[in-house]
Amino acid sequence: MDRRTFVQRTCIASAGLLVGGIPTLGEDEVVLPIAPPIDVHEAPLAKKSPLGMPGLYPGRVVELHDAGSIVGNRVSQPVVRQMLERGLKELTGESSAPTAWSKFVEPHDVVGVKINPSGAPACCSSPELVREIIRGVQSAGVPTQNIIVYDRFGNEMDLGSYQLLMPPGIRVVGVQDNRLDEKGYDANVYAQVDFFGEWETRSYMASIVATELTKIINVPTLKDHSASGVTGCLKNVGYGTFNNVARSHKEPFSFTNPLIGVLCSIEPLRSKVVLNIMDGTRMVWHGGPLTQNQDFIYQAGLMLVSTDPVAMDTVELDIIEKKRREEKAPSVWEHKPSSLTKNGREFFNDASKNLFYRQPGHIAAAGKLGLGVSDLKAIDWRKVEMKA
Known about the structure:
It is a single chain. This protein is an alpha/beta fold. The chain has a single domain (3-24, 35-385), classed as Rossmann fold, CATH 3.40.50.11440. The chain contains 13 helices and 18 strands. The chain has helices spanning 3-15, 77-92, 97-101, 127-139, 154-159, 162-165, 207-212, 233-238, 256-265, 269-272, 309-326, 344-349, 362-368, and strands at residues 39-41, 60-65, 70-71, 74-75, 111-114, 147-153, 171-176, 185-192, 202-206, 215-218, 221-225, 229-231, 249-250, 253-254, 273-284, 297-298, 302-306, 380-385. Strands 2, 5, 6, 7, 10, 11, 12, 15, 16, 17 and 18 form an eleven-stranded mixed β-sheet that branches. It starts with a helix and ends with a strand.
């Protein structure tokens, strides 16, 4: 593709700010600036995969609930196993979990399990769930040495003790050791854009995604985000694959819309993400992504399963908005100057305050890029109540 194609892709994403179920601004709310065009350099696969986003089952999301999946802030792996197996069978229509797994991975694949350690130890991808995902991938014939648990930041993975808690033989990889480490990225696959006059205007794709992995299982957590509104499937795999992405938000403005969707659309990332399994045992409804404040972490006992990251994030947004209403907290769509604070301590302790004008519209924008279904009414949202 040429530059013009990529700029058009960005403009379509920006249009997501204006359409798709977005609440009307009040008189006291600001109008947000339009994002600049983004130049994308990608590495398309020789043959486009039918498994790539939005995957085999666009628009279908399976939500499972079991109060026994988390008790006393401890996740039950046996219960999580039952939820995961039921979710995969409901998603695919298969009668057995191994057969369901075989729809997404094959014995010759190198499978990456993209976790979200951000917010560890209070709220991150549960090791109990990650171990069950590994077990499922192995049931489809993928050898242990071909399974890699990874994230961008090795130091955050250390906080979650993933190196110690994964099964023997599983590689646990942090793409970079610190914020300035660039050696784990592919210089030929990147997105280029100047948001705020930053000196480095490129975000590079992790080499492990660009060249080593053949399939990715995305394991986000159910949480809000101070800049993007929520951090779900799209942000976990987009911002978790490219470096230099925090530059997209500078108080009080955020260009997470459209950058999140654009990054997810870049090949070969788009083709390699084949399944999303959201850990909702704990739900962060304010203070995300890094909060350790238990007042804002609800033990929800949920799990979401889908191939469609946009549909899943649309459901996630609805769940978080409902919880915020119950807690008398403002909507993540709110763009009132009075809601802003520059005091991090105030933000982490007051659900009425935020650091940025959030951009939950990044989900609808990603839908405009063809990554999935963002209309809640068009989503096949299947709710499963597990029996104790």
